[in-house]
């Protein structure tokens, strides 16, 4: 029995902590086997200092997204172990910079091959299991940053207290996932719903919807789904335009599941996926009568711009938008 799994999203933090503890334990055992004296909990700070150089505790805290106290504790451990030293800020005597020692640089170089092996193994494990963990985490982080959970929880509590019928003790779980070949027909059907309602289906649409592997996947693109009870209820696609640019297209949510934030979740998922694979920019083509979609795009940081070369030709497109990722 896994009781935390039974608690579903109520135990999300506990399950992530459990997974983190397990991974850190595995790394610690690997270091011990290889006779490497390094605390894996110092890994983020070592990486940050190595890649970006000396910095203050406050700025390191901001870059890592953790508390000042947590970074101070890690800094103390690094200084105590001879991996870092504190130096006065040349522009402000009241501040100190944390700086890696030569021993830390040597340790970093010696650990790099092992870290490469770890990254490759974890990435391969995720692919074999059919999930995209890092994009999902990034999407959730972005969603939480845009809409703090405390406000959402209190608003929902108020709604439940005013209308107890809104209390759903067994909510339907929406899961985000990558391409599933058995959902090829559903990918087309979800998009045909809105295309046929507002526009006419072009040859380019047919190519994208009925030959998605050729149109999207074979060129390094992605098709992402939202699913409920193992059935797709939403989709979005990323078409690779060149090394640095993806076109976001074919965002669709089943009519039975609209107005639930699923389109936003799919968009965040696609943005995080493009970011993870190194894209510099996302672009999209739309039509001005799709006001709800355009509102969502703008909320997520897309801005109207001049069309770039190399995009598929859709006659209905009368607005071009882009979002810089890096």
Automatic annotation (TrEMBL):
What Gene3D superfamilies does this protein map onto? Answer: 3.40.630.30, Winged helix-like DNA-binding domain superfamily/Winged helix DNA-binding domain
Query: Which top-rank group of organisms is this from?
Result: Bacteria
Q: Which PROSITE patterns match?
A: GNAT, HTH_MARR_2
Q: Which GO terms describe its molecular function?
A: acyltransferase activity, transferring groups other than amino-acyl groups; DNA-binding transcription factor activity
A Pfam family (short name) is MarR
Q: Specify the N-acetyltransferase domain's residue ranges.
A: 185-326
Q: Which SMART domains match?
A: HTH_MARR
Q: Which segments constitute the HTH marR-type domain?
A: 9-142
An example Gene Ontology biological process: response to stress
UniProt entry keywords in alphabetical sequence? Transferase
Q: What is this protein called?
A: GNAT family N-acetyltransferase
- Which species is this record about? Zooshikella ganghwensis
């Amino acid at each position: 029995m896994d009781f935390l799994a039974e608690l579903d999203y109520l135990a999300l933090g506990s399950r992530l902590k459990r997974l983190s503890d397990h991974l850190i334990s595995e790394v610690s055992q690997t270091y011990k086997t290889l006779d490497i004296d390094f605390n894996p909990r110092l890994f983020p700070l070592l990486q940050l200092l190595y890649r970006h150089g000396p910095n203050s505790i406050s700025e390191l805290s901001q870059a890592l997204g953790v508390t000042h106290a947590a970074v101070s504790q890690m800094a103390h451990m690094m200084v105590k172990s001879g991996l870092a030293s504190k130096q006065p800020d040349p522009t402000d005597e009241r501040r100190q910079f944390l700086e890696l020692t030569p021993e830390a640089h040597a340790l970093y170089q010696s650990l790099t091959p092992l870290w490469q092996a770890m990254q490759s193994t974890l990435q391969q494990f995720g692919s074999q299991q059919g999930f995209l963990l890092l994009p999902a985490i990034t999407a959730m982080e972005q969603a939480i940053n845009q809409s703090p959970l405390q406000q959402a929880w209190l608003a929902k509590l108020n709604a439940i207290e005013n209308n107890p019928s809104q209390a759903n003790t067994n909510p339907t779980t929406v899961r985000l996932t990558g391409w599933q070949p058995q959902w090829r027909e559903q990918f087309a059907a979800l998009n045909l719903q809105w295309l046929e309602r507002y526009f006419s289906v072009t040859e380019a649409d047919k190519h994208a919807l009925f030959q998605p592997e050729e149109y999207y996947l074979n060129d390094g693109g992605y098709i992402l789904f939202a699913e409920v009870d193992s059935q797709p209820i939403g989709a979005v696609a990323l078409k690779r335009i060149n090394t640095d640019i993806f076109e976001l297209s074919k965002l669709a949510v089943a009519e039975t599941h609209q107005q639930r934030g699923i389109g936003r979740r799919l968009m965040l998922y696609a943005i995080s996926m493009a970011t993870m694979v190194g894209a510099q920019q996302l672009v999209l083509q739309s039509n001005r009568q799709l006001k709800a979609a355009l509102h969502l795009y703008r909320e997520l940081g897309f801005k109207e711009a001049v069309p770039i070369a190399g995009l598929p030709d859709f006659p209905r497109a009368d607005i071009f938008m882009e979002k810089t990722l890096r």
